[in-house]
Design brief:
CATH superfamily of the largest domain: Type I PLP-dependent aspartate aminotransferase-like (Major domain)
Radius of gyration: 19 Å
Shape: globular
Number of helices: 11
Strand order of the largest sheet: 3-2-4-7
CATH topology of the largest domain: Aspartate Aminotransferase, domain 2
CATH class of the largest domain: Alpha Beta
Structural class: alpha/beta
Largest sheet: 4 strands, parallel
Strand content: 15-25%
Helix content: 25-40%
Distance between the termini: 45 Å
Order of helices and strands: HEHEHHEHEEEHEHEEHHEEHEEH
């Protein structure tokens, strides 16, 4: 926890809650947000999220999702557990402006905005820095908490330890997971200490902070902090030349149809490269950030034969 306090980009005193997965990290963040406003400004019950978002599969996190209909179908027949407003994602490849959409939003009732800087499940959609900054700066000015989900983008996935750093974002809460555990299950919710629960028992879990997992996470942080930056920059350059759309080691290739995408993935698998889809018709390329340069080049050479 000390290492997470040290490396995360929150500029005040911090507290860390450890859990078992990214979706649990998001659930903890939501409970912190709602508890804080329940105590201080109870009319703030709305959470803003972007279309194309993916924040997990438990009910609170699931309520935020807007990437694939299959994720939510049938789970909210009596309504979601949170009041959610979806905004257009300020994609660098579109002119969508979520700030303009706020004219119809009762801002005095908004508690937080939860967002990805690069939407992983939604299609590797990358935010435009200026439009994202304009939106977040305005929301902060009207009392809205800023909650980036760095579960996929953290740990140098986008070229810096956290994508927030490239965008100049100062979080109130940050959600972490996936590569933080070095292959073992972990989630972490890092909060500005003034947001913390005021009563014992408001939130807890059974296995969060497991000593074995924490040792792995501590070592994963050390590996990240000591990455060969020249090697990382070369890998980003090589991968971006092959797949120009994306950020850092988080790239995509778009296809005309789901069938074409799936055929490409199947051909790659036959040749020894395992891929995963993103969005409806995209393939995501997210190799380990510490992959050997030669291995990445070999994989790309194989992928060039799969079109």
């Amino acid at each position: 926890m000390q290492k997470l306090r040290y490396v995360t980009p929150i500029n005040f005193g911090k507290k860390v809650f450890l859990s078992n997965s990214g979706t649990e990290a998001v659930e903890a963040a939501l409970k912190v947000v709602m508890d804080y406003h329940f105590r201080n400004d109870p009319k703030r019950t709305i959470v803003l999220v972007f279309r194309g978002a993916f924040h997990g599969r438990t009910l609170g996190a699931l309520a935020l999702n807007a990437s694939k209909e299959v994720h939510r179908r049938g789970f909210f027949q009596s309504g979601p557990p949170l009041k959610i407003i979806h905004l257009s994602f300020p994609d660098i490849n579109t002119d969508a402006d979520p700030l303009a959409e706020l004219k119809d939003v009762p801002l005095e009732k908004v508690a937080a905005i939860v967002f990805e800087i690069v939407q992983g499940e939604g299609g590797i959609n990358t935010a435009d820095p200026e439009r994202m900054a304009a939106l977040l700066n305005f929301l902060r000015s009207v009392g809205v908490l800023i909650v980036p989900d760095e579960i996929q983008t953290g740990m140098y996935r986008t070229g810096t330890l956290f994508a927030c750093e490239q965008y100049g974002i100062e979080p109130d809460i940050i959600c972490l997971g996936k590569s933080l555990g070095g292959g073992l299950p972990i989630g972490a919710t890092v909060i500005e200490e003034g947001l913390d629960f005021q009563e014992r028992g408001r939130h807890s879990n059974t296995f969060g902070g497991n000593p074995l997992i924490c040792v792995a996470a501590s070592q994963a942080i050390e590996v990240a902090l000591n990455l060969n930056k020249t090697k990382l920059e070369r890998n980003i350059r090589v991968l971006s030349e092959f797949a120009p759309e994306g950020l850092g080691m988080m790239r995509r290739k778009r296809f005309e149809s789901v069938e074409a995408r799936n055929a490409y993935m199947a051909k790659a698998l036959e040749k020894g490269v395992l891929l995963i889809g993103s969005g409806e018709k995209n393939v995501r390329f997210m190799p380990p950030v510490n992959i050997e340069n030669s291995l990445l080049s070999e994989a790309i050479d194989i992928l060039r034969t799969c079109d």
